[in-house]
Amino acid sequence: MTDDVIEPATADFQLTRILAALADPQRLATVRYVAANGESWCTQVMQEAGLAMSKSTFSHHLRILREAGILTKRIAGAKGYTRLRRDDLDRRFPGLMGAILDAGPAGATPRADAPAGQGRA
Amino acid sequence: MTDDVIEPATADFQLTRILAALADPQRLATVRYVAANGESWCTQVMQEAGLAMSKSTFSHHLRILREAGILTKRIAGAKGYTRLRRDDLDRRFPGLMGAILDAGPAGATPRADAPAGQGRA
Asked: Where does residue B90 rank: exposed (0-12), middle (13-18), buried (19+ CB within 10 A)?
């Protein structure tokens, strides 16, 4: 399994790159799923986050999220697992991920009866 | 002066659209300038925010920011003025603009001696 994605160090995070990575409904759904479920098998994320796309398209989205510094990937055996770099993000851009995760589904107006957001902030 | 830009109502704000609008260093600099200086003459924003671009390119960026709901524009006489829709943004996505405005210059690591951010959050 080749993996040439370079995940940046926290000090190298770029705000505009992080915003661009999150500015896509399917990438945002990926991040929300991983934020809510912790480290997850990549194939499971694609299936359970309701992402109707090919594996290669999902890989492309995952690459953008990893290159921005939002997600990290760990390979164990033949499986890839991904998790949110929440501590790194919170240290570098305090409050940003919390505000985004708490913002409700992308594009939707929050419902009055919606549960509280899943962010830790 | 024609102006066919549609500025969305707060309930119609879309998170991914807002993130995409802010995911550009020059648009982010525009928003930071207006956040720090209040309602500003558009030509002045372009000059003082250090945006080396044509008027038409700046207009294009302004349109993206207005269509996302981040900035609003008021025309008085022959001049256009723009300001941040901070209250609308804070109501719809609590903490988001504060985190972004406090995040330091786009792409740069915050300096230890930097003054506190200009956000109100």
From this structure: middle
ipTM of the complex: 0.84
CA-CA distance, A58 to A51, in Å (whole number)?
8
Cβ atoms A119, A35 nearer than 8 A? yes
pTM above 0.80?
yes
Cβ separation of A99 and B109 shorter than 8 Å?
A: no
Q: What pLDDT, in 10s, does the model give residues B31-81?
A: 999 999 999 999 999 999 989 999 999 999 999 999 999 999 999 999 999
Listed in sequence order, the DSSP H helices in chain B are 15-22, 25-37, 42-48, 55-68, 86-92, 96-101
Measure B76 CA to nearest chain A CA, in Å: 32
Q: Which of B16, B23, B99 sits opposite A28 (nearest CB)?
A: B16
Rg of chain A on CA atoms, in Å: 14
Token pair, residue A55, equals 């594996």
Tell me the chain A residues in contact with residue B109 when contact means C-beta distances shorter than 8 Å.
11-12
Contact yes or no for A100 and B15 at CB 8 A: yes
Q: How many CB atoms lie within 10 A of CB A79?
A: 12
